[in-house]
Amino acid sequence: MYDKMGIKEENMDFQNYFTIWNKLNTVQQNRILGSVITRKVSKGTVIHNGGMDCAGLLLVKTGQLRAYILSDEGREITIYRLFDMDMCLFSASCMIRSIQFEIIIEAEKDTVLWVIPPETYKSIMEESAPLANYTNELMASRFSDVMWLMEQIMWKSLDRRIASFLLEEVSIEGTDTLKTTHESIANHLGSHREVITRMLRYFQNEGMVKLSRGKIEITDVPKLQKLCEE
Amino acid sequence: MYDKMGIKEENMDFQNYFTIWNKLNTVQQNRILGSVITRKVSKGTVIHNGGMDCAGLLLVKTGQLRAYILSDEGREITIYRLFDMDMCLFSASCMIRSIQFEIIIEAEKDTVLWVIPPETYKSIMEESAPLANYTNELMASRFSDVMWLMEQIMWKSLDRRIASFLLEEVSIEGTDTLKTTHESIANHLGSHREVITRMLRYFQNEGMVKLSRGKIEITDVPKLQKLCEE
Asked: What is the ipTM of this complex?
């Protein structure tokens, strides 16, 4: 009895998060409900690892995911992040033939998510214009993220990219004191630890941050913002 | 009579180039045939200029288009190119809400193309799963181009990017003698003319190219290829 209630509530939750739900017909809805599973992953878990994997569509209930690419030498760069109610398409890249790139998706916080198997989603998408158009919008949204990043990399110098990254973290974490390492920032921005350390020391000399082991305290948000806008 | 034959042939051509044609119903096909127009544009024409424009879907019959982004200071970088039978989606960016970036599309050669008005395409896409899925594949394909470029920019040094660009040009143009300027290469790669000139002189010293006014002759393709693979 309790279990049944649990499943019902879980399903209701899923339907609210999966915003295209009402545009699917009952048969399609039941096929999804019959195959969707809930997964809990701990911080640091790699959920999708390049072109070999095809875990399925990931819908984030709570938590935070990070999508990044990796160079041959092991350097990383964060491509985008996913938060509550965001849907991850590229973890089901086997579904769309023209997706020809390798992306890694990792839980950046403990995360609860729903997984829709790629076969289920694909077969419904092939017959449902609303679901195919929803998928279009998802992809366009990630495309916009990547184009934004490309502009950052091409036209912005590293000091502005670090400033922008720190401010984004402050906004995500809701605190001025970030628990992060220089290595981790380098991985987000596709840079080297030494380069980040040098720049952060410059920021500290300018009174914008205060550095201590494993922590960066932002001491002058407006000054960082001004740097971003330059 | 001749005119009618002309239109018929033109339509047949269009149907062969627009590969999803047979998956549309007769009503949808007629709506497209009733609104598609043929355009001839000369080399250098800007067909789509950022978020304000929404010319429509462009299907290249013959010629070559280039999509690029522009920095505040006027620096360019080529994002992708389109050749015969390629379809350009982002010239109809008003069609998809989540496309939030500015791209410029210019004819790199004299080009003949078909233009499908965005309203027509959108209204059919909303009801046709095949057309929506075709659009998905198009977007994924451009997404893959951009991810490839991102990897190039992030992980490859400029010498390898220039070598790779020259080889691509040789392959597109079908000749070892490229009519191009250092300025133009800088614009493709998001770099500065001076930087490109310096690198090309280094290539010349290494016997890979021979430079003259407005021309670059590739003299050692295997050596350039080896540089790309390093």
From this structure: 0.82
